[in-house]
TrEMBL record:
Gene3D superfamilies: 3.10.50.10, Glycosidases. Belongs to the glycosyl hydrolase 18 family. Chitinase class V subfamily. It comes from Serendipita indica (strain DSM 11827). Pfam families: Glyco_hydro_18. GO terms for cellular component: extracellular region. It catalyses: Random endo-hydrolysis of N-acetyl-beta-D-glucosaminide (1->4)-beta-linkages in chitin and chitodextrins. The keyword Heme does not apply. This is chitinase. One of its GO terms (molecular function) is chitin binding. Residues 1-16 form the signal peptide. The keyword Membrane does not apply.
C-alpha cells in the first residue's frame, strides 16, 4: 500500500488538484474540487440498478472503538516480527496482509504458503496426524482463542497486488463470483473473521461501480455463509481507501457504505520523495503544510459523500518519510536518504534519528525530527500526535484508528498502537468467530483440539481438553468431512 502506493498517485494529485493551495496565485485555473459531481452521481445511479442493490445498510454492531493493525506476512523474515510479537492488549482487529487475486479469473489466493500456513512455531507438532494449519495463520487463530474480542481479517491487494490490474476483474460479474467463493473458502479454511480489500485504485467509473458491486455481493455471500453455519456474528468487510482525490474519485461512497463494516482511511503519504519540499506526511489539519492534504479534509469528504461516521477509521503511519539535504520543514530537499528497509522510509521504532530534535506542530498535528548538521528531516507521528488524532476520532464520533504496520511500532509507553487504544477509551469487545466446520484443516475444525470433530451428526461427545489434541485427532484418523459437527464449538461461540 501504502509506501510505494503513493508515489504516482499523489504526484498526479499534487499536480492536478488537491495539491494546490486554495488562495495561491493561479488557483483560479485549478480544476474545481467538485468537478466530478456528475461522475459521482453516475456511480450511484448505476449501482442502484445493480441486481443486488440497493440494500439496507449493514450496521457494524461494535460496542466500543476499534483499533486495528496490519500484520504483514513478509514481516516474519528480515524484520523478524512474528505473530507472537503482536501486543494485542489494545487491538480489536488484525488485518493480515496480503492475499492476491488472479487478474483474469478473480480467484483469491495466498501469497506465501510458508509464512501463512507452513512455518512451525514453538508448540507446533511435526508428527501429529492429519492436515493441519501452521504458520502465521495458525498463530492468528491462537490469538483469537486467547482474546475473544480480537477479530482477524484477510487483506487482499495493497499496492503490490493491485499492480498489473490485479483487482480490475471487479468489472466482470463472473470473476467477482469466483473471487467471492474462493475468498470465503480461504476465510473458512484459515479461520478469519472477515475480508479487507485494499484496491489501489479504481481508475474509472466502471471500476468504481465494479468495486462497489463486489463489496455488495461479498456482503450477501458472507451473510449467507454465516447463516449456513448457524452463526449469528456477521463476518466483516473493510476497505482501505485513499485520502487523496485521485485515489477516491471513482468510489461510489454512499453505496459502498451500505455494505462495508469499516472504512480504513490511508491517512498518510501526503508528502515524500515526489514532493518539491519536505513536509508533513500525515497531518490531521492543514496548518502551514504545502501539500494540500489533511486527514480532516479527507474524512469530511467521505462523510459528505455518504460514509457513516460510525464506520470511519483513521489510518496512522507507523513509519516516517525522510527528506535529505534540507534546511528544515517545508524547504527544498535533495534525495530521501537511507531508511530502515528501503531508502527514505523509517520504521517508527527507528525514530527519531539519533542526535536530532523532535518538533511537534500544534496547528497541523504532525511531527518531524531534524538535525541541522546531517540536514536529514523525517516526518512521522509521535505518541502526542497519535493521541491527538485519537482524540479527534472521539470528538467526531468516528469508529477508531488503524495502523500500518505492526512490526514498526515501539513497545510499551512509546507504542503508537497502545497510545491510540488508550486514548480511544472503551474498545470493541464483540466476539470473534472460532467455529469453522468447513475448514480443510483438522486443527481449525477441532478448534485446536478443544472440541471433538466427528462425522456423525448425532454425537454427544463431551469436549476434549486442549492437552489431548493429538489423541482426538488420532481417533478421527479418517479425514473428517464437512458434515463434522463441533460439539463444544457452537456453545463457545454463543456464550
Ligand atoms: C457538487 O458540488 C457542490 C460544491 O461542492 C456540492 O455542494 C454538492 O453537494 C455536490 N453535489 C453532489 C451530488 O455531490
Ligand atoms: C475540518 O473540516 C471541517 C469540515 O470541512 C472544517 O469545517 C474545519 O474547519 C476543519 N478543521 C480544521 C482545523 O481545518
Ligand atoms: C547532529 O548530529 C551530529 C552527529 O551526526 C551531532 O554531532 C550533533 O550534535 C547533532 N546536532 C544536534 C543539534 O543534536
Amino acid at each position: 500500500m501504502h509506501l510505494f502506493a503513493t508515489t504516482l498517485v499523489f504526484l498526479q494529485a499534487a499536480l492536478a488538484v488537491v495539491g494546490r493551495p486554495k488562495n495561491a496565485p493561479g488557483s483560479v485555473m485549478a480544476r474545481p474540487d467538485q468537478y466530478n459531481n456528475a461522475t459521482t452521481q453516475l456511480c450511484e445511479d448505476r449501482f442502484r440498478y445493480h441486481p443486488n442493490g440497493p440494500r439496507p445498510p449493514h450496521p457494524n454492531h461494535r460496542d466500543g472503538k476499534v483499533n486495528m493493525g496490519y500484520f504483514v506476512n513478509w514481516g516474519i523474515y528480515a524484520r523478524n516480527f512474528q505473530p507472537q510479537d503482536i501486543d494485542v492488549s489494545k487491538l480489536t482487529h488484525i488485518l493480515y496482509a496480503f492475499a492476491d487475486t488472479d487478474p483474469t479469473t478473480g480467484a483469491a489466493m495466498l501469497t506465501d504458503l510458508y509464512a501463512d500456513q507452513e512455518k512451525h512455531y514453538d508448540g507446533d507438532s511435526w508428527v501429529e496426524p492429519g492436515t493441519n494449519l501452521y504458520g502465521a495463520m495458525k498463530q492468528m487463530y491462537l490469538l483469537k482463542q486467547a482474546n475473544r474480542g480480537l477479530k482477524t481479517l484477510l487483506s487482499f491487494g495493497g499496492w503490490t497486488y493491485s499492480q498489473a490490474g490485479h483487482l480490475n476483474f471487479v468489472t466482470d460479474p463472473t470473476a467477482r463470483a469466483t473471487f467471492i467463493s474462493t475468498a470465503i473458502t480461504l476465510l473458512e479454511d484459515n479461520g478469519f473473521d472477515g475480508i479487507d480489500i485494499d484496491y489501489e485504485y479504481p481508475s474509472s467509473v466502471e471500476q468504481g461501480v465494479g468495486f462497489a458491486s463486489l463489496l455488495a455481493e461479498l456482503r450477501i455471500a458472507l451473510d449467507a455463509h454465516a447463516a449456513s453455519k448457524g452463526d449469528t456474528v456477521p463476518y466483516q468487510i473493510t476497505a482501505a481507501v485513499s485520502a487523496g482525490y485521485s485515489g477516491y474519485q471513482y468510489l461510489p461512497i454512499a453505496a459502498m457504505d451500505d455494505t462495508l463494516t469499516y472504512w480504513n482511511l490511508m491517512a498518510y503519504d501526503y508528502s515524500g520523495s515526489w514532493s518539491t519540499v519536505s513536509d508533513d506526511h500525515a497531518n490531521l489539519f492543514p496548518g502551514k503544510t504545502t501539500t494540500g492534504f489533511s486527514t480532516n479534509a479527507s474524512i469530511q469528504y467521505y462523510l459528505g459523500q455518504g460514509a457513516s461516521k460510525s464506520k470511519m477509521v483513521m489510518g496512522t503511519p507507523l513509519y516516517g518519510h525522510g527528506f535529505a539535504n534540507t534546511d528544515g520543514i517545508r524547504k527544498p530537499f535533495s534525495g530521501v536518504g537511507a531508511g530502515s528497509w528501503e531508502d527514505g522510509i523509517w520504521d517508527y521504532k527507528d525514530l527519531p534519528r539519533p542526535y536530532s530534535t523532535v518538533t511537534e506542530e500544534r496547528d497541523s498535528v504532525a511531527a518531524y525530527c531534524y538535525n541541522a548538521t546531517t540536514r536529514l528531516l523525517v516526518s512521522y507521528d509521535t505518541p502526542k500526535v497519535v493521541a491527538r488524532k485519537a482524540a479527534y476520532v472521539n470528538q467526531n464520533d468516528l469508529a477508531g484508528t488503524m495502523h500500518w504496520e505492526l512490526s514498526a511500532d515501539k513497545k510499551g509507553a512509546d507504542s503508537l498502537v497502545l497510545t491510540s487504544g488508550k486514548t480511544l477509551g472503551k474498545l470493541d469487545k464483540t466476539k470473534n468467530h472460532l467455529s469453522y466446520p468447513g475448514s480443510k484443516f483438522d486443527n481449525i475444525r477441532s478448534q485446536m483440539g478443544t472440541v471433538v470433530t466427528t462425522t456423525t451428526t448425532t454425537s454427544t461427545s463431551t469436549p476434549t481438553p486442549p492437552s489431548s489434541m493429538s489423541t482426538s485427532t488420532a481417533q478421527t484418523s479418517a479425514p473428517p468431512t464437512t458434515e463434522s459437527i463441533l460439539v463444544a464449538g457452537k456453545a463457545l461461540d454463543k456464550e
